[in-house]
Amino acid sequence: MKLEGKTAVVTGAASGIGRATAEALARAGAHVLLGDVNAQAGEAAAAAIRARGQGAQFLCLDVTDGASIEAFRREAIARRSHVDIVVNVAGWGKTEPFVKNTPELWNKLIDLNLLGPIRVTRAFVEPMIERQAGKIVSVASDAGRVGSLGETVYSGTKGGVIAFSKGLARELARYNINVNCVCPGPTDTPLMAAVPDKIREAFERATPMRRLARPAEIADAILFFASPRADFVTGQVLSVSGGLTMAG
User: Fold this and answer.
1) What pTM, to 2 d.p., does this model score?
2) Residue 154 appears among annotated catalytic residues
């Protein structure tokens, strides 16, 4: 899967699945623009990629802030002239019974997990339409396909990302733009590290392969959708969950 000459944007790229995705795209030859609110970790991730002789730059990005997204878009175009691949990874969740949720938590989940990918996609899609080429990959979650205990509103936001991606795929297919979703199961990320041990262990027991996913395994699926090997694949949802979710 070769991406030489391509420019890719990856949100949430300072750690976890986002960082693993940035590294995978860079290894395939893309110049990667890493976006994240964590400037220190984002700069370190970009520097590590450059140290391997690959192209990467960090640009501060808050996907909940329209002004931040516009500044990111302008800087991305100034540095690379155009963007070929957009990968929406930035997201967040909290395990808590629905009846204990606050409206503030709902708003944060919706703003980051659903509106974030919508905003970032909108920022880059028009030039793709003009060039009649592009790849958009959003990281949803198997929680958005089958629900997840203690993550009710989170599941709703991820289900929204799936539906948004399918609708957008239909709209953009005429322009040769591919839009797809990757749905991780429980994955060994910094977010998972904040989950109580008993819940983490329950995830491992429930997964037929008896372990959590590694971020690089999610990144491999994203790389496929971003590559020429997926040129005739659009509107699809790929679960990477060790068999935890087998949705039809």
Assistant:
1) 0.93
2) yes
